[in-house]
């Protein structure tokens, strides 16, 4: 794979200058960093602000809701105005909001600025849309797999880094590092990210006229739901694992950070398999294999917990396998839903991403309700298993339905 995406021209004849692959990896990664780097600090932050864990856990679940809203907005905006200006604006908001989290005097103010940080979710939606601008079909799934394989290194390292920074200098220092990373990405995006939306983008009027076709597509909803449920299992874990690490396994923040690498290692392997196999095996088969793998791993962990096996290696080992399954499901689901209406790739990516984040927010919040002292890891495992089964049902429904014709062929053009 070369240093950047293939150079092509848009429908207007103007040259498109895609960013280097490394830039797309980092744009996806800054969102993962924002989500993961402070997780080991959550129990300590709750004590520092004088609130319970459930309140502080809103910095995960409510952040996911805000991220879902962001992805709903940035998809259509980037289809209209282009990927580059929308990405630059989102990063500027993120940097300003991070300064606010550092200065926040109360948990309430921290959560306000934390919600504004969700602007960085733009990076994941638009990095996928940029890939889909340049390549199509199973090739897009393969390229997205490579991009997110590199991104998976960030959530693997971030909790370890965050835990170490917290123990050395306190949780606010974690957000100082996060703000510096955001400023660096703002500069890199300005320097490297050219525009890739064909013809300067699709007008909002045309997008609105074509929304019903996207909304009526069973294949779009099947892919989007497969991604939503797969993501939901992971986000439930993100919201509940710090509690399980401290209350069930009696870990320090740094130790929780080390174990948080488990799903990232699995996710990186799953992304690698997507990059290598999606073109040969096919998008749907990759999603099915990943969904089956995820459901089986979580079922084994749940049975083990019921049998009284309460060990970090069993819990986090199952999570690592879940991560590998998600690494197969997510890039292929994203490529599938963006291929339904190709010239609304940004809108489809944003809508699907919003569904995934909203679902994840709900499951994360549910996990926070049931994870009370003495509950153990079982409520979290049951929630994740139910979500994984939902992903499996969604892809099975797609594979049993007759294939729809390419949505883009039936749509009006500007």
Description:
The protein has helices at residues 21-36, 42-49, 53-56, 58-81, 83-103, 107-117, 122-134, 137-151, 153-169, 171-192, 204-215, 218-248, 253-259, 261-281, 283-306, 312-338, 345-370, 378-400. It has 18 helices and no strands. Mean pLDDT is 77; it is low at 1-15 and 404-414. The protein is globular and about 50 Å long. It has 414 residues and is mainly alpha-helical. The two termini are 34 Å apart.
Question: What's the overall average pLDDT, rounded?
Answer: 77
Q: What is the share of helical residues?
A: over 70%
- Span between N and C termini? 34 Å
Task: Spell the H/E element sequence.
Answer: HHHHHHHHHHHHHHHHHH
Regarding quaternary structure, how should these chains be classified?
single chain
Please state the overall shape, judged from the principal axes of the Cα atoms.
globular
Q: How can the largest sheet be summarized?
A: none
The structural class is mainly alpha
Can you count the beta strands? 0
Number of helices: 18
Kindly list the characteristics that best describe this protein:
414 residues, 18 helices, globular, disordered C terminus
Produce a short descriptive summary.
The protein is mainly α. It has 18 helices and no strands.
What's the structural blueprint in terms of helices and strands?
Layout: H1 21-36, H2 42-49, H3 53-56, H4 58-81, H5 83-103, H6 107-117, H7 122-134, H8 137-151, H9 153-169, H10 171-192, H11 204-215, H12 218-248, H13 253-259, H14 261-281, H15 283-306, H16 312-338, H17 345-370, H18 378-400
Helix pairs in contact: 1-7, 1-8, 1-9, 1-10, 4-5, 4-6, 4-7, 4-17, 5-6, 5-7, 5-10, 7-8, 7-17, 8-14, 8-16, 9-10, 9-13, 9-14, 12-16, 12-17, 12-18, 14-15, 14-16, 15-16, 15-18, 17-18
